[in-house]
Specification:
The structure is a single chain. By secondary structure, the chain is of the alpha+beta class. The protein contains five helices and seven strands. A seven-stranded antiparallel sheet has the order 1-2-3-7-6-5-4, with helices on both faces.
Length: 220
């Protein structure tokens, strides 16, 4: 991948970076509708924590969300998001026990990449399965990813705004009562084209496999 010096005359062309970053933040860091986890957090009383026992308590494989920034190896970050800080940046969450997200993004030369990895913890396997199926339905047009968690799905979409293409891949994976959500997108600001479908899809799946492995290897 090339790395080209940016003359002053090209400054105006980099404005889409901020726009794309905002779009990526909205798409990958905050769902349009509240998730099941958000509803649970909103429904708690000031004295009730996520770990408080209830009459309908069930055994959970995962009690809290793991560190998302540790979910993707530095080598994978370097290959998917060239130029990004491998440590990533965790996005603030209203309840870190049930949802945590880490983000990596960078512009190298004219190529822009954005990667988000999220962990969400449901109260039960059944609740996680319901949430997973709902999100798959909302993101129709993709396909199953065999051998990833209990079930997994990937979809890639192309969007064009002001003649600039952006291709985004999303992978959803369920592991017991946990959901792993990976968003990976990119653009080329020189050609105004987007990376190929295969590149984005494989990149998103690669990150998802690392995140699922990190989840399963944690203490839960």
């Amino acid at each position: 991948m090339r790395s080209l010096p940016l003359p002053l005359a090209l400054t105006a062309r980099l404005t889409p970076v901020a726009v794309l970053a905002c779009a990526g933040w909205a798409l990958s860091s905050g769902p349009a509708t509240p998730s099941a986890a958000d509803h649970r957090a909103a429904g708690r009383t000031p004295t009730q924590s996520s770990s408080a026992p209830s009459s309908t308590a069930v055994s959970k494989s995962y009690a809290t969300a793991p560190s998302p920034c540790a979910g993707v190896p530095a080598s994978t970050v370097k290959s998917l998001v060239p130029g990004a800080k491998t440590a990533g940046k965790e996005i603030p969450s209203t309840d870190t026990e049930i949802r945590r997200t880490c983000s990596w993004n960078a512009l190298k030369g004219y190529d822009y990449r954005w990667l988000d990895v999220s962990f969400e913890i449901a109260d039960s396997d059944q609740e996680a399965k319901k949430e997973y199926e709902q999100r798959v339905t909302e993101k129709s047009g993709g396909g199953a990813v065999p051998g990833l968690g209990d079930s997994a799905y990937s979809v890639v979409n192309l969007t064009t705004e002001d003649k600039q293409q952006t291709r985004e891949g999303v992978v959803l994976a369920r592991v017991s009562n946990a959901l792993v959500i990976v968003t990976y997108n990119g653009s080329d600001f020189e050609s105004k084209k987007a990376p190929g479908t295969e590149e984005i899809n494989k990149g998103a799946i690669k990150a998802a496999k690392s995140a699922v492995a990190a989840l399963q290897g944690g203490s839960g």
